[in-house]
Amino acid sequence: MSRNRSRGRRRSGNRQSSKPKVDLATLTAKLSDYTPIQPKERIRLETDRYEYIGRIMDMFTPISRGQRCLITSPPKAGKTTILKTIGKAVHKNHPDIFQLAVLIDERPEEATDFRRKMPFEVHASTSDRSSSNHIKVAEKAFTIALEKVLEGKDVLILLDSITRLARAYNVEHTGSGGRTLSGGVSAGALDIPRQLFGAARNLEGGGSLTIIGTALIETGSRMDEVIFQEFKGTGNMELLLDEELVLRRVFPAIDIASSGTRREEMMLDELERKQTPLLRRRLMDQSPVEGMQWMIKRLHDSKNNQNFLRSIPQL
């Protein structure tokens, strides 16, 4: 009996069909021909009353086209689930945005799951591949993204993770003759990862590149801590996942009090500008666990964020 040797090998769809035409350095340099302006055009993530991640992010960490967003996460806190939720929401609410997922040093089965479930391009270099392959895959994806941005399109990259990409550059940079800094990070090894993350911007008279990247914290690795500190403060949105919430099995494990977006007042509508500060003050009086449990209950009882925010004075 003949066997179908191809079974299980075929990857669904054309998730990695784009091919870059110009090298990454040339495209990065061309960004300087445009004036970067504040992100203003909102990316809405709310889709369903029971999809709490998008609803919470819309209120407390709003995203606009051209932002650099950092999701800081301890192990097993649900960062990949959050990225998937964001990807699906953007595909549904903003089909004009070209999306790519970039998975670096990822578990092979997780990469397969991403490819099968995400309705957009997925560029993955799994944990069994070399650091040079991690870099090659990431740079190809960024090249594709920047080509489209310079053509006037709006692009979103979901990067998981900045930490692992930085590790790969550090491995390739080690032995180049430079100094070694704290945590075993070679001097200059993080220059290109910073440039890639910094490429996210809203171009006046052009397109935009939004990057939502994850950074690992509380891993016990000094190198990971150094990498996180290098990127902390370089974005204009930070979503912090909380270890206590993870231990208590409360998801999404978002520390609302420690999360936020710079210049969020430019993105929020009138109701959000009025009510979100009241909601933040209420949550500040509670622990992250109590606050998230309270939020989940209230969101469950309201059909959408507008309905929920209008109810705040009566809470």
Automatic annotation (TrEMBL):
Record-annotated AAA+ ATPase domain positions: 65-251
Alphabetized InterPro entries for the sequence: AAA+_ATPase, ATPase_F1/V1/A1_a/bsu_nucl-bd, P-loop_NTPase, Term_rho
UniProt keyword list: ATP-binding, Helicase, Hydrolase, Nucleotide-binding, RNA-binding, Transcription, Transcription regulation, Transcription termination
GO MF, one annotated term: ATP binding
Enzyme Commission number(s) from the entry: 3.6.4.-
Residues binding ATP, per UniProt: 76-81, 107
Region (Disordered): 1-21
One Gene Ontology term from the biological process aspect of the record: DNA-templated transcription termination
PANTHER family on file: TRANSCRIPTION TERMINATION FACTOR RHO
NCBIfam families the UniProt entry points to: PRK09376.1
Free-text function comment from the UniProt entry: Facilitates transcription termination by a mechanism that involves Rho binding to the nascent RNA, activation of Rho's RNA-dependent ATPase activity, and release of the mRNA from the DNA template.
Family assignment from sequence similarity: Belongs to the Rho family.
Subunit structure: Homohexamer. The homohexamer assembles into an open ring structure.
This protein's name: Transcription termination factor Rho
Record organism: Lujinxingia vulgaris
